[in-house]
Design brief:
The strands form two sheets. Strands 1-2 form a two-stranded parallel ribbon. Strands 3-4 form a two-stranded parallel ribbon. α15 crosses α22. The two termini are 36 Å apart. The protein is extended, with a radius of gyration of 31 Å. It is 67% helix and 2% strand. The longest helix has 43 residues. It is mainly alpha-helical.
């Protein structure tokens, strides 16, 4: 399930014990809005959701997209620390108000209560049942008046229990059943004299309610957002062109290079769509190519596809190298050398069972840190790398365990050393084994995505979208059939990304292609020289801008059609 991170702080972190002396940031943070406030929550309004280009784009690719509080990562930790500091300051302010209320120290508590009121009032106004709940918004603003709250706090007669009970009653109208217990705890905090904790809990509950409402809105409008995704993104792109808020130079350079390569290989006769599909597929799979700006909303998805393709190729290479090792050690693996767990019907090694085990060696989203072996230190970190890759020593250890399960005995030190050498030899870029695996993986994806493109959305279904038989047969002959499900999923993701991108930006690419053709024709008629070539190179950005100007009219024509 894919989640959209919210700029939120997990609840449940209460400031414990008295705070003395006052926190350093007391004066600077007095009257500052809390981390969760009406402005941060407005992004969860259905209107803002429907106008959010990135969210609309993600809905197209993630069938279970939903909002969740951002509770992991460095940014989330920094926000959590800031929130803890903020609420520590609030607790100090509350204690000061309870001890000796003055006109100067009640401002923060007053602001927080009014902020709670406004969040709830906006919820009532934005609710699908706004007609029935509109009176709640009016009542909230009448019953919780800012001047009245301030005066009551100054004179020490503010009834926190009554106000919190009223706010909780309105929260229950909007909250799902699973939030009711959290709402009930607010009154418990008040009864125990923990006003600061009750205020923080109220903001946490309101954020949870808003997230629940936003997720319900996404579910309600999901099909609408999917069906209008192309038109919406095309409109958003045209607006960016008019406002000149998008840089297209790198995309233009990439596309012109693809056109030149297609022309050199005489593939331009197949049509712009075929040229684009081939170039975009190569872009997605080639991690040495930077992702152009126009693919910015798919950047993370492209990186994920690249990593998964790399992972499958590594697993295939490891499997074949490990199979060679088993054959060398077991002298073609006679039946008496194979444990029953891995023995096939004929008593020999069951390679399908072995392949299933190898698939588990490198988890999804990971690679292998081959460079770890260069240190020669098997005691180094077994799982390393900033992205959580499997260390080479860990891979060797896992394969040693697997080999011992296959043979039913402990491997000798010389056999372990042989396994290491076999893996390292296979991992070299010039190794024929690695080249074969990468070629089979790339060819299977290419053939499959070509087949999906040929469907052109006319036919859908498991049988129609399965990997072509010829590609599966090529993998089978290389003992890589176990990669078919993973490669099928990768091909489907590539096709989805590329097809949607083409439908949205087709007019732009057509405009750049026409501009390039006119430039080439003009050079052919006027003669090409040193000055002309340098001028063409220096005006590349200008060509992109002129192409985008014709894109707007072309895209509007497509929309009208």
């Amino acid at each position: 399930m894919r989640t959209l991170s919210r700029q939120a702080v997990p609840s449940g972190v209460a400031a414990a014990g008295p705070i003395a002396p006052a926190p350093t940031a007391t004066r600077s943070q007095t009257c500052a809005l809390p981390p969760v406030n009406r402005y941060t929550l407005r992004e969860l309004k259905i209107h803002n959701i429907l106008q959010n280009p990135r969210l609309r784009h993600e809905v197209l690719f993630e069938p279970k997209l939903e909002f969740r509080p951002n509770s992991s990562g460095q940014l989330a930790e920094a926000k959590q620390r800031a929130a803890m500091q903020y609420w520590a300051v609030v607790e100090y302010e509350v204690k000061a108000v309870m001890a000796s209320p003055t006109a100067s120290n009640v401002a923060t508590v007053t602001m927080l209560i009014i902020e709670l009121r406004e969040i709830l009032a906006e919820m009532c106004e934005d609710s699908p049942k706004s007609e029935q709940l509109s009176q709640h918004a009016v009542d909230l603003r009448e019953r919780i008046d800012e001047d009245c709250v301030r005066q009551q706090l100054e004179h020490g007669v503010f009834d926190a229990a009554a106000v919190m009970a009223y706010l909780a009653s309105v929260m229950r109208v909007h909250a799902q059943p699973l939030r009711q217990s959290a709402i009930a705890r607010l009154s418990v905090y008040i009864q125990r004299g923990r006003l600061a904790r009750a205020l923080r809990g109220a903001f946490d509950v309101l954020e949870a309610i808003k997230i629940d409402t936003a997720n319900s809105s996404i579910d309600m409008y999901r099909e609408y957002m999917r069906s209008t995704a192309v038109a919406f993104e095309r409109s958003h792109f045209n607006m960016a062109l008019r406002r000149q808020t998008i840089a297209l130079e790198d995309t233009t350079v990439w596309w012109r290079r693809a056109l030149d390569e297609a022309r050199a290989q005489e593939r331009q006769k197949l049509g712009l769509d075929a040229v684009f599909y081939a170039a975009a597929r190569e872009l997605v799979l080639d991690d040495s190519q930077p992702v152009p700006a126009l693919f910015r909303m798919d950047d993370g998805r492209i990186q994920t596809i690249r990593r998964e393709t790399e992972r499958l190729a590594i697993i295939g290479m490891v499997f074949l190298a490990f199979s060679q090792f088993l054959q060398l050690v077991g002298r073609s693996v006679p039946s008496r050398s194979v444990a029953a767990e891995f023995a096939g019907a004929n008593g020999r090694l069951d390679y399908e069972r072995l392949a299933a085990e190898c698939l588990q060696l490198v988890p999804e989203g990971c690679g292998v840190q081959w460079a770890e072996s260069l240190t020669g230190n098997r005691a180094s970190s077994s799982k390393g790398g900033a992205r959580g890759d499997v260390g080479f020593s860990q891979l060797v250890d896992d394969l040693v365990v697997l080999a011992e399960r296959v043979f039913g005995r402990v491997l000798a030190a010389s056999e372990v050393a042989m396994l290491e050498r076999t893996l390292l030899r296979a991992a070299r870029h010039e190794c024929p084994l690695r080249e074969v695996v990468e070629d089979r993986v790339g060819s299977a994806i290419c053939e499959h995505t070509n087949a999906l493109s040929a469907l052109n959305g006319k036919v859908r279904g498991t049988e129609c979208e399965a990997m072509p038989a010829s590609a599966q047969e090529s993998l089978r002959r290389s003992m890589l059939s176990f990669l078919v499900p993973g490669l099928t999923a990768v091909s489907g993701k590539i096709h989805t990304v590329v097809t949607h991108h083409w439908h949205v930006y087709k007019a732009f690419y057509a405009a750049v292609s026409s501009s390039a053709a006119r430039s080439k024709h003009a050079r052919a008629n006027g003669g090409s020289g040193r000055d002309g070539d340098s001028s063409a190179g220096s005006n590349n950005g200008e060509t992109a801008r002129s192409a985008t100007s014709s894109t707007s009219s072309s895209a509007n024509t497509i929309s009208a059609r």
